[in-house]
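Open question from group meeting: does this chain pack into something compact, or does most of it stay loose? Before anyone orders reagents, we agreed to write out a predicted structure and look at it together. Recording both the input and the output here so the notebook holds the full record.
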Amino acid sequence: MIAIIYKQLSRFVPDLKEKLLQADIPDTPEEFLRKTFMVSLMLSFGVAILFIGGLFSSFGVPIIFAFILFPICLFFLFYYLVKIPEMKIRQKEQGIAREIVFASRFLIIEIESGVPVYNAFVNVARVYPIVGSYFSAIVDRINMGTSMEDAMNEATELVPSGDLRKILWQILNSIKTGADVTDALNSVLDQIVQDQKIAVEEYGRKLNPLAMFYMLIAVILPSLGTTMLIIFASFIGFRLSLPVMLSIAGFLAFIQFMFYALIKSSRPPVDF
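Structure tokens returned:
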């Protein structure tokens, strides 16, 4: 019965099976959802009952509110943990983006030097740890008796990066048609480099307003606001207790972290 529920639930998460494969998570969609739900359940219990319940009781708030917040915590934690494969895929995409240009140029130089495609794959796997892992998977399949075309088709399904997938497709098409591999790779590489340059330029345009909002919201307003709050509190006789000050400090730290995460996530994973 429970397995059927998880199976039905997996239908509401699009492409979960493919995402798990690309994220290197060795679970079926049903197993992943079951583990995710159990972890969310335990974390929600800890947050809602132990932490929130203790905090509410210290301020005189009825502890029943902790039980009301329990399903809310469960929902948001489950929703967040289900996104873990996408987060891992994003990390893999960023790692591939940092190496794709150099690995492609290395591959082109190897093939132009007369090195067979198989040996070029082996060399790429040795030099570049992230991009090379996918070429290593192709080499392993070939060593196990799979043809190069089938091995590349199987490996392409596990590649989370569209740029690396284009590289593999061009190599595969060139092998099938007997065309020059380096010409096809050079055209794809030029497009990848152009896309990365555009991403860097867009990041530069975003950085100036982000820096301005950071100075305004995360530096100027908190410092002036805290100073004015202390002054007004002293005039009206309001006592700023330690929990209130800690709450303000925690909120300011959260704002700082959000700006840091926003700027870091906006930076394109490009190395020139």
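Observations to bring back to the group:
The CA atoms of residues 38 and 57 lie 27 Å apart.
Residues 181-236 form the longest helix (56 residues).
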